[in-house]
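User: Can you help me understand a structure? I only have the sequence.
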Amino acid sequence: MKIHRLLIGLVLFSFFTVQSQEDINQLDAQGARHGLWKKKYPDSDQLRYEGTFEHGKEVGVFKFYCEDCGKQPTAIRTFNKKDKSVFVQYFTAKGKLVSEGGMVDRDREGEWKYYHEKSDRVMSREFYKNGKLNGTQTTYYPDGAKTEELNFVNDVREGENLYYSPEGVVIKKLQYRNGQLQGPAFYYDASGVLVIEGFYKDGQKHGLWKYFKNGVLELEETYPKPLNKTE
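Assistant: Let's start by predicting it. Here is the structure, written out as tokens:
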């Protein structure tokens, strides 16, 4: 009786194993990938990716692996069937989350977050539109305090840029136009006291620049400086 049951169990196991293998990497009537797909690296048992297709289109969760990752994916893409967007996460080979954000038609879209190497805290946060940086890119110290705030329009710096000390004090305030320093510039010490005040034109110092010490004007310079005349 025990041998009979064992034989039945082996037959059923073989049946379900063959059936499950047959259910993977299938094509629909039009020759498009359909259902669960798993691909391995050449001459290896290591998975390269796994995920589900619906008549040639990715749906649900797809996992991607490096050649020596084992069961730890280095990227996970979650496809949204309603709006065709994709939520993407990148990981180290040890499973540490590196970055995450949205994509549409292979272009980055919306908010992307990047994480510090040795913690789960956000290292930087930026926003994309049609694959280009648009909006404020904020970078953070490991404790979560802001390091800088840079503004972008179509991948180009535009508008006010702020830089902070670890204590949260603004130490630089600069203006950009079309990717170049343009306009008033202010530099402060760690206590927030003004130390340099000036103006940029086309990325170069221009006009009157003032230098302070302990809040008192110490030096003034005008740019561009006149060339020394030689006889």
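Now, to help you interpret it: The helical segments are 2-22. The chain is about 10% helix and 55% strand. Let me know which part you'd like to focus on.
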